[in-house]
Each structure stands twice: as C-alpha cells, then as structure tokens.
Amino acid sequence: MILSRLQILSLSILCCGLIVAAVPQWQNSTDGRQYLIEGDQNYNWFKAFHECARRKLQLVEIDSKEKNQALIEVLKPLFGDSHNLWIGANDEYNRDKDFKRPFYWSSSGQPMTFSHWSSNNPGNDQQDEHCVHMWKSKPDYQWNDHHCDTPRFGFVCEEHHLKADLTKMMADKRKTATETSIKLYEEYHRQQKLMMEKLENSLKEIQNIETELKEQLHNIHTKLEFDINHALAQHQREANSVVDDRTKAIRNVFADLTGATTEISMSVSKEMERVKTVYDDIFSI
Ligand SMILES: *[C@@H]1O[C@H](CO)[C@@H](O)[C@H](O)[C@H]1NC(C)=O
C-alpha cells in the first residue's frame, strides 16, 4: 500500500498529537481579558465551537478595535505574525457572494459591527465559506471566511458572555448593596446621634428639675425650721412668763406666810414670857 505524502503527513500529526497531548493554554491580555488558545491545527469550526462550549466558554467574539488589538498582542509572541485560528463568527449559511453580507457572533447572536477582514474578503468561495478565522496567510491576524468543515485550524475561546454579564450584574448588585448598607449605616449613626442628644438633653432637664426641687425643699426646710424655732421661742417666752408669774405669786404667798409665822411666833413668845412671869410669881413664894 502506497501512502500519499498527505497521508504520511496526517499520520505523523496524529502520532505526535497522541504522544504530546496538546492542551490549550490560558493567556492574559493587557486589557484584563483572558483567552484559552489552541494553536494545534486540528479543528473544524463546529468542533472548535464545542471545545469552548464544553469548558463553559465561547469561541471568541471580537467586537472592537481595542479588543482586537489586545488579542493580537497576546497571539504574536505565541505564533508570530499570524496563525489559523477560528473565531466565533458565521454568516448563517448565507449564499450571497456579497462582500458586505451580514455576519453574526454565534454565542451572543449579535450582528458583527467591528471587523478585521483581509483584502477581498469575505469572498464566500463556492458560496460555501460561512465561518470566520484569523488567517495565517495574511499579516496581523486578519480575517477570512472559510468552509466551516475544514478541520485544519486552531481556535481562541474566551469567558462566556452570559458569565461576563452575570459577573457584571453581580458586581453592580454588590456595589448597590454596599452603597445601600453604607447609607443605612450612616442613617443609623445619624439617628443614634440624635437619640443621644435627646437623651442628654432629657438628662440635663431632669438634673435641672432635681436641682430646682432640692432648692425648693431646702427653702421649705429653712422656712419650716425658722417657723418652728420662732414658735418654740414664742412658746418658751410664754411659758417663762407664766412660770415667772407663778413664782412671784408663790414668793408673795411665802413672804406673807413667813411674816405671819414671825408674828405668830413673836406673839407666842410674848405670851410665853407673860406665862413665865406668872409662874415665877407663883413659885417664888
Ligand atoms: C494570568 O493572570 C492571573 C491573575 O489574574 C495569574 O494567576 C496567571 O498566572 C496569569 N497567567 C499567565 C499565563 O500569565
């Protein structure tokens, strides 16, 4: 059996592919994006699409000059000036030969607005070039439309746009949540400060009332004390004068009594003298 040159080439590719199991590599782009890049020239467009999808990724969608330029900067150190790599665009099997027939990004379904076509492309050769790839034969990774079932290119995957949307949505929600909690926190603090001020004012008011009450009580106390002392003194004076009066009266009675007693004793002794004289007369006989 004689093998053609092409068959020998295919076999050698098959052999080496088996021995050195090629693994697509992640690469970082200067614009913050990350790409999973398969340089091996073994894939038709559908297989490339599925290789991305199985990893929850999508065949790359290049929708701006900036993204295209940053991706080229990633590819140049890996493959040099250009390489055959499938990207995620097709023309929905349009048979128009029209250079300007519309193309679409297959994962998002969005019409292609930015493009990086090589000269005279997309040509739709044999009306059967419906898938888009970066073309090794043109510098700077310019694009070409080609038969989708050509199994001879590598591919570039990127984060699935739904995941990117979800990540952005989550980031927005997180931002909103953070802002809301900051606002709530500030409002809580404001309210707390107000409450503290109110509480402090109330406490001050209570202290004022207490001080006032103390003063009033003190005044009442002082007045009561004064009144009681005054009344006591008055009573004392009254009592004293009553006692004085009684003492005087008793003293008078006593003096009268003393006078009377003296008089009586004097008259008794006078009488005794007289009786003695009488007795002396009688017993001197
Ligand atoms: C890409 O960047 C990430 C950090 O964002 C880092 O962990 C990773 O090693 C980088 N990969 C390459 C190939 O430089």
TrEMBL record:
InterPro entries, sorted: C-type_lectin-like (IPR001304), C-type_lectin-like/link_sf (IPR016186), C-type_lectin/snaclec_domain (IPR050111), C-type_lectin_CS (IPR018378), CTDL_fold (IPR016187)
Signal peptide region: 1-21
Native source organism of the sequence: Stomoxys calcitrans (Stable fly)
Ranges in a coiled coil: 189-219
PANTHER family tied to this protein: MANNOSE, PHOSPHOLIPASE, LECTIN RECEPTOR RELATED
Name of the featured protein: C-type lectin domain-containing protein
Superkingdom of source: Eukaryota
PROSITE patterns: C_TYPE_LECTIN_1, C_TYPE_LECTIN_2
Keyword flag DNA-binding: no
Domain C-type lectin: 30-149
Keywords: Coiled coil, Disulfide bond, Signal
The UniProt record lists the keyword Signal: yes
